C-alpha cells in the first residue's frame, strides 16, 4: 500500500504539486492521468523519493519514506521509466540483474540465486529468449518487458511505471498493461501507473487520479472520474463516452472550429447520404 498526504513540490520557486493526497492499495492499479505538464511524473517521482516532497509525506505499508534509506526504498518500490539507450552496452540478462542491486552489497558479484531470480523474472514477462541479446537492439515492446522484468527481479511489492505504453503499438500496449494488471491482481502488488491514454486507463485501472496544474481534480473508479464533465474542462476538448458491453470508450474532438478542409471530426455521428 502506498499512501501520500498533502504532497507539495516546487522546482525552484515554481510550485508544481500542491496538497496531493493519494492511496494505492495492494492488489490494485492506480492510474495517474492529466494533461501535459500537470505533474504526473513529478508526483510519481515523489512516491519513491527520487524527488523529496517539500510538504506532506509518503508511506509505504505504513512506514514513512523519510525514515527509510535509498536501499530500503528500492527493496520495497520498483520503478519503470522510459529508458534511453545507455552508453554502456548491456545484455538483457545484465540489465535484469541490475534489479538485484538493492539485495547485495555494493561490490558483490551476482550469485547463482540472483541469476535464477533474473531468469525467472524474464520468463514471467515472456522474454527469456532475449536474455543474451543486447538491450539496445530490442524493439520498444521488448525493451518495456525487460524493464518490467528488471523491476520484478527487484522483488519489490510496489511498482511505479511512467507511461509504460509510450511508443508501443496497440498490441504491445495491451500486452504490457495486461502484465501489469496481472501483477496487481494475482501477485497482489501495488501498482501506480502514469498513462496518457484515457481509454487504457479506463480498461486497466481500478482507480484513477486526475491531475490538473498539480492538483487533484477528481479521484475514484474510472467510470466515475473519466466523464465528459470532468475531462472537458481539464483537457479543453469535447468528450463523448460511448458505452460498450464491458465498459466504455472515450472519443475526443477539438473545441475550436477545425481548419478548412480538415477531415470530419472523429466522433461526429455518421451521416447518411440521401
Ligand atoms: N527538472 C525540472 N526542472 C524544472 N521544471 C520541471 C522539471 N521537470 C518538470 N518540470 C516542470 O514541472 C511541470 C510538471 O512536469 P511533469 O513532468 O511532472 O508533468 P507531466 O504531467 O508528467 O507531463 P507530461 O504529460 O508532459 O509528461 C511541467 O511544467 C514541467 O515543465
Describe this structure in words.
By secondary structure, the protein is of the alpha/beta class. The chain has one domain: Rossmann fold, CATH 3.40.50. 31% of the residues lie in helices and 28% in strands. The chain contains 9 helices and 12 strands. The strands form 3 sheets. The protein has a 6-stranded mixed β-sheet with strand order 6-7-8-3-9-10, with helices on both faces. The chain has a 4-stranded antiparallel β-sheet with strand order 2-1-4-5, with helices on one face. Helix 6 links the parallel strand 7 and strand 8. The longest helix is centred in the middle third of the chain and has 18 residues. The C terminus is likely disordered. Adenosine-5'-triphosphate binds next to helix 1.
| Helix content percent band | 25-40%
Question: How much is the average pLDDT?
Answer: 90
Give me the Rg, rounded: 20 Å
Strand order of the largest sheet: 6-7-8-3-9-10
The hetero molecules present are: adenosine-5'-triphosphate
Q: What number of domains?
A: 1
% residues in beta strands: 25-35%
CATH homologous superfamily classification? P-loop containing nucleotide triphosphate hydrolases
Order of helices and strands: EEEHEEHEHHHEHEHEEHHEE
The biggest beta sheet is recorded as: 6 strands, mixed
Tell me which CATH architecture applies here.
Answer: 3-Layer(aba) Sandwich
For the termini, the CA-CA separation is 59 Å
Under CATH at level 1, the class stands as Alpha Beta
H/I helix tally? 9
Overall structural class, as computed from helix and strand content, comes to alpha/beta
Keywords: ATP-binding, Nucleotide-binding, Transport
Pfam family, one: ABC_tran
GO molecular function, one term: ATP hydrolysis activity
InterPro entries: AAA+_ATPase, ABC_transporter-like_ATP-bd, ABC_transporter-like_CS, P-loop_NTPase
Amino acid at each position: 500500500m502506498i499512501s501520500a498526504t498533502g504532497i507539495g513540490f516546487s522546482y525552484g520557486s515554481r510550485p508544481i504539486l500542491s496538497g496531493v493526497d493519494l492511496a494505492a492499495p495492494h492488489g490494485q492499479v492506480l492510474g495517474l492521468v492529466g494533461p501535459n505538464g500537470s505533474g504526473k511524473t513529478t508526483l510519481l517521482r515523489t512516491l519513491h523519493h527520487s524527488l523529496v516532497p517539500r510538504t506532506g509525506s509518503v508511506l509505504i505499508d505504513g512506514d514513512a519514506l523519510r525514515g527509510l534509506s535509498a536501499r530500503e526504498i528500492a527493496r520495497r518500490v520498483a520503478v519503470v521509466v522510459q529508458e534511453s539507450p545507455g552508453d554502456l552496452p548491456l545484455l538483457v540478462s545484465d540489465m535484469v540483474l541490475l534489479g538485484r542491486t538493492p539485495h547485495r552489497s555494493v561490490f558483490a558479484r551476482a550469485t547463482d540465486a540472483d541469476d535464477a531470480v533474473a531468469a525467472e523474472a524474464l520468463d514471467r514477462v515472456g522474454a527469456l529468449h532475449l536474455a543474451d541479446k543486447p538491450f539496445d537492439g530490442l524493439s520498444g515492446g521488448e525493451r518495456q518487458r525487460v524493464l518490467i522484468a528488471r523491476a520484478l527481479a527487484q522483488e519489490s511489492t510496489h511498482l511505479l511505471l511512467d507511461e509504460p505504453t509510450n511508443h508501443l503499438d496497440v498490441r504491445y500496449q495491451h500486452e504490457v498493461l495486461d502484465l501489469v494488471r496481472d501483477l496487481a491482481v494475482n501477485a497482489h502488488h501495488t501498482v501506480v501507473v502514469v498513462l496518457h491514454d484515457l481509454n487504457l486507463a479506463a480498461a486497466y485501472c481500478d482507480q484513477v487520479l486526475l491531475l490538473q496544474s498539480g492538483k487533484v481534480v477528481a479521484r475514484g473508479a474510472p467510470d466515475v472520474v473519466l466523464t465528459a464533465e470532468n475531462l472537458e474542462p481539464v483537457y479543453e476538448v469535447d468528450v463523448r463516452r460511448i458505452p460498450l458491453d464491458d465498459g466504455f470508450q472515450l472519443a475526443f474532438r477539438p473545441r475550436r472550429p477545425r481548419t478548412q478542409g480538415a477531415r470530419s471530426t472523429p466522433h461526429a455521428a455518421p451521416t447518411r447520404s440521401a
